[in-house]
Amino acid sequence: MKRKQTLLFKKKPYVVSAYSIVGEKEGEGPLNKWFDDCIRDNTYGETTWEKSESKMLKTAITEVIRRAGKDKSEIGAMLSGDLLNQLMSSSFMARDLHIPFLGMYGACSTMTESLMLGSVLTDGCYSDNVIVGASSHYCTAERQFRLPLEHGNQRPPSAQWTATASGAMLLSREGGEISDYMDKEGKVKRQKHVRVECGTIGKVIDAGVKDANQMGSAMAPAAVDTILNHLQDTNRDIDYYDAVLTGDLGFIGKDIVKDLLTDAGLSPAALAKVYDDCGAMIYTPKQDVHSGGSGCGCSASVFSGYIYKKMKKGKLHRALIISTGALLSTISPFQGESIPGIAHAIALEAE
Question: Do 148 and 211 share a structural domain?
């Protein structure tokens, strides 16, 4: 069922497992306890950074299959993407796993784009089990989009740090078994099912930003447009959700989103209660990341780690997750082009 830009899923696909793996810098950040694994060497035992990123993504994919108690033969489709030319990390990962594969590209919005289309496949009964994922790596992104690391160029304060991270989720028509866990007080509690309730397809919004070191400013208007259209389509207020997380806007983009949503009539108090950005959450200012985090793996790892685990434990009941992407190429800034932005939203609920 569709309302303008929002798809309502009748069967509400289950997120039966998730896995997040991050690099050393991300593992030193404030969300370290929510990630499933942290590598201590950004080469991850490989000879190139590109192979390292692909290996991280492969680890995330294989772990969600194992955690769900599935076999590769039971997976109907795998949707994944990254920032590299020809989706190198995802394509090479898929080469090894031999699972039907759809390569996704939405820049840093890839995780929610994959989640939405994976939910369509599952909700429409085209596939019983679908894997979605995304990855990024600081070293591969720097080499492709900016300058060689050996150059040692100085980054302006507005620049963001591409997260070395991967995240994956397994969507299924069946919820599977729910296990118990022990809380901090020693009480045994039952975990929750996490389901995909709806998704809002974003529009390409171009604010005219031409500075490739101002990604948060370029993507923020797209995030605001998607959030407002989602709330209008669903007839909800922002405080319907326990958490509203954009991805990859960083500190500057986060502030712009708050200002624009307030100008649109949303309550500043409600925003302060539920809204945050993955790029502002994954690092601390002391880690010298300037304007915060970015990259496909930033929101993918935060959604697959922090959000999913909090929902499984019933600490969050409704979450709206929005990945944002800057749709520039390696050459478009040099041709005088502005940076178009995109944002897709997914509403998750725990029951």
Answer: no
